[in-house]
């Protein structure tokens, strides 16, 4: 009898964790932002495609440091420690899930957040570049997440939208400016951050 109760307990634990996981994914929020930028996909990817490149183009990121645990070629874990341009220099930690330079995309998950800045949990995101019109590219940044218990869904979405918008707008300005600081004229289709 004790043996059956132990097995039943294991089965119930398995069901509870499955139910808990399913409940965590049901209320997931998503944000998707796109920006048409000047430059071939290869040129744009050269600016944003490195997992440690965020400080080069995102104005909110002061510094990024890679942390590789284990052998990166044998499935080690690659994380980036982001120091933000904000009072008290808050830190976020994100872990690389996958990166495909040929497809010009990478995905990552947030492993440490600052609730006052990014009030989310279970956050995963993908950044990608694709060809658009001649000499233009479409940069897509999309993520899914849950709000922290201390935040509303609206607050969480606004925070993520703000991160994406700030980065994509700055990237567009960078790529539309010549080396001597002149802004190139727009020949846009009108597509901006969505």
Please provide a written account of the structure:
The chain has 194 residues and is an alpha+beta fold. It has helices at residues 2-26, 41-48, 54-57, 153-175, and strands spanning 29-38, 61-69, 77-84, 91-100, 105-112, 120-131, 136-147.
Distance between the termini: 60 Å
Can you write the helix and strand succession as a string? HEHHEEEEEEH
- Corresponding CATH superfamily of the domain at 27-59 and 98-175: START domain
Q: Low-confidence spans: pLDDT under 50, at least 5 residues?
A: 1-23, 187-194
Structural class: alpha+beta
Largest sheet: 7 strands, antiparallel
Radius of gyration: 20 Å
- Please write the CATH class name of the domain at 27-59 and 98-175: Alpha Beta
Query: What fraction strand?
Result: 35-45%
The count of strands amounts to 7
Main β-sheet, spatial strand arrangement:
1-7-6-5-4-3-2
Q: Helical element count? A: 4
CATH architecture assignment name of the domain at 27-59 and 98-175: 2-Layer Sandwich
Could you tell me the mean pLDDT?
83
Proportion in helices: 25-40%
Here the CATH topology of the domain at 27-59 and 98-175 equals Alpha-D-Glucose-1,6-Bisphosphate, Chain A, domain 4
Q: Give the overall shape, derived from the CA principal axes.
A: globular
């Amino acid at each position: 009898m004790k043996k059956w109760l132990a097995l039943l307990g294991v089965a119930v634990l398995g069901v509870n964790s499955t139910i808990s996981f399913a409940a965590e994914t049901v209320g997931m929020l998503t944000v998707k932002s796109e920006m048409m930028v000047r430059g071939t996909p290869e040129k744009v990817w050269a600016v944003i495609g490195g997992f440690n490149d965020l400080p080069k183009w995102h104005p909110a990121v002061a510094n990024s440091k890679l942390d590789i645990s284990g052998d990166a070629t044998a499935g080690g874990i690659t994380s980036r420690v982001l120091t933000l341009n904000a009072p008290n220099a808050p830190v976020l930690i994100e872990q690389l899930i996958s990166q495909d330079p040929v497809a010009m995309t990478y995905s990552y998950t947030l492993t440490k957040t600052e609730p006052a800045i990014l009030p989310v949990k279970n956050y995963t995101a993908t950044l990608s570049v694709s060809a658009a019109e001649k000499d233009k590219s479409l940069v897509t940044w999309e993520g899914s997440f849950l709000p922290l218990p201390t935040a509303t869904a609206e607050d969480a979405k606004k925070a993520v939208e703000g991160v994406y918008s700030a980065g994509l707008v700055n990237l567009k300005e960078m790529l539309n400016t010549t080396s001597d600081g002149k802004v190139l004229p727009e020949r846009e289709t009108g597509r901006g951050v969505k």
